[in-house]
Design goal:
The chain is mostly helical and about 260 residues long. About 70% of the residues lie in helices and about 0% in strands.
């Protein structure tokens, strides 16, 4: 039985790494999809420096980066280590997700959610945007999946959308009303709605609470490092995504210790 579990974990890890490789394409190209010459499906993967198409052996997740020492086979230009990190993180998250939810429709539904959070985090860090195709599309997908494939029903999903997006919308409006400055982007509001669609109204409240803690800790860290432009250094999307992952895997345990289970 232990060998079977190990084999299953290795297969899941490999599957997650493959998905992570595709997520790298999404992370790189989604912010540029206004160009008709570029999409997540076209053109084929190539070196950003010499523009040569990569052979299939150079597209093997994790392994190719190690064998090529993080450089292009043709021009020897350095390849961003972020690609390796995304593949590795997605691989571990796949093992984590399927171990908890099983190899059934529910597990794949939640892995779609997890993969979306990985893409959102990377794009928000680099570009300070959260593409609507993921946040709004994910909100609709989460609601539809709640009909059969999630731990919540469609009513809880709908209330999660309204409470998640609605709370941040109210917060953003209040901040703007008193300061005449935008304190939270629309992308964060849509992301909160998407998270609410997958996790429900009870869990979204925990997500908002945890994300504020994560953001505060990071902000304190930046202050200690004496970063001058703190607001520019703090996109909120990654904190929402991180809090959503914590809630997905440990939400029930946290609520139990808080006395809300």
């Amino acid at each position: 039985m232990e060998w079977i579990n190990l084999f299953r974990a290795l297969v899941t890890f490999g599957f997650g790494a493959l998905v992570g490789s595709f997520l790298n394409v999404c992370i790189t190209r989604l912010p540029q999809e206004d160009s008709k010459e570029r999409s997540i499906l076209w053109p084929r993967s190539h070196c950003d420096h010499c523009q040569k198409q990569l052979p299939w052996v150079d597209l093997i997740p994790l392994v190719s980066t190690i064998l090529l020492l993080g450089r292009c086979r043709f021009c020897k230009a350095k390849i961003s280590f972020e690609y390796f990190i995304v593949e590795l993180v997605t691989a571990f998250l796949a093992v984590w997700t399927f171990d908890q939810f099983g190899f059934r429709p529910q597990g794949f539904a939640y892995f779609l959610f997890v993969a979306s959070l990985v893409v959102i985090t990377a794009i928000d860090i680099h570009h300070r945007i959260i593409p609507d195709v993921i946040s709004l599309g994910g909100t609709l997908l989460g609601f539809l999946l709640s009909l059969h494939f999630l731990d919540i029903n469609y009513t809880e999903s709908l209330l999660g959308i309204l409470s998640g997006g609605g709370f941040l919308l109210l917060l953003a409006w209040t901040y703007f009303k008193f300061t005449s400055r935008e304190g939270m982007g629309g992308g964060d509001i849509k992301l909160a709605a998407m998270i609410g669609a997958f996790l429900g109204y009870k869990s979204i409240l925990l997500v908002l609470f945890l994300s504020s803690i994560l953001g505060s800790v990071w902000g304190l860290f930046m202050i200690l490092l004496k970063k001058e432009n703190l607001r520019a250094a703090l996109p909120f999307g990654p904190f929402l995504a991180g809090a959503a992952l914590i809630t997905l895997f440990y939400g029930e345990l946290i609520l139990y210790f808080l006395g809300y289970s």
